[in-house]
Amino acid sequence: MTDWTEELLAPGLRLSYGVNRVLAQTHTPHQQLTLIENDQFGRVMLLDGVTQVTTADEFIYHEMLAHVPLFAHGDVRDVLIIGGGDCGLAEEVLKHESVRRVFQVEIDVAVVSSARRHLGAINAAVFEDERFHLRIEDGVRFVDGLTESFDAVLVDSTDPIGPAAKLFSAEFYRNIRRCLRVRGVLAVQAGVPFLQREAFASTVSNLASVFKFAGCYLLASPSYIGGHLAIGWASDCLRLDRPSVDRLEQRVAKSGLGLRYYSSAMHRAAFVLPPYIAEPVKGCIARPEGAGP
Ligand code: SAM
Prior knowledge:
Elements: E1 3-4, E2 7-10, E3 13-15, E4 18-19, E5 21-27, E6 32-38, E7 42-47, E8 50-54, H1 58-73, E9 78-83, H2 88-93, E10 101-106, H3 109-118, H4 120-127, E11 132-136, H5 139-144, E12 150-156, H6 170-178, E13 180-189, H7 197-210, E14 213-219, E15 229-235, H8 245-255, H9 264-269, H10 275-278
Parallel strand pairs: 9-10, 9-12, 10-11, 12-13
Antiparallel strand pairs: 1-4, 2-3, 5-6, 6-7, 7-8, 13-15, 14-15
This protein binds S-adenosylmethionine.
């Protein structure tokens, strides 16, 4: 008989995966880590019972978190990733030839070792790439004392509870702003607005309280149940939401990347918000003035 996992998504709502095989199950010093195989989603990593990544649909989230800011910027060299322990995001970032260094700060070494061992399909290239540098530390503390600067900071974190809570605060965003270059951009995992309305709204509002331009864009990933997932973005210079269509198309075509979700058309479409998602963040999304990339 099949075993089933149980993911509590919200009060009164659970998701279960049929488990073909358990690949890892351990209490790390930070969280409960589970890695299973499932018919529909392939290999699935859960932290504290919450889906983090699946080999079947990770491309959707990782492509959108990486390529929207990177193609909008057009010449990203140094990238800081906070969290992202499965290393699928780093893999997407390293596809950009302009990138000369990816610095990733992840709190839990067990997530990285488990992902390296079992999720090679989504991250093997990262560990062969000398541009990739990993540091095991709390991202909040790391950014607090940071003196280096970056073109893009990507926050690929768990939901705003436990050690990840401060990764969604205005204070953390202020520290990130300090280490962004002039055209620098920040993009952050901002939750599923339908199920996490308050966390989503406060994330975008915190971004808007710190940066000149801020907002969110959407993606639809089957394993993040509840409709669209939002990515929050912010910059003092660059408007991710108003790309020059020609320039964006040229950059994407020139990159030669064979992507499965991101395209220049998806880039533009992702910023169209249905009213139920726009409403809780109205007043904090980017004002009309300001240059597109
Ligand atoms: N895509 C996923 C999602 O949204 O469900 C996130 C994936 S990634 C595995 C999330 C990572 O954030 C975890 O590995 C977790 O250990 C890490 N993390 C949580 N809090 C952190 C912190 N304060 N500093 C650095 N990494 C943190």
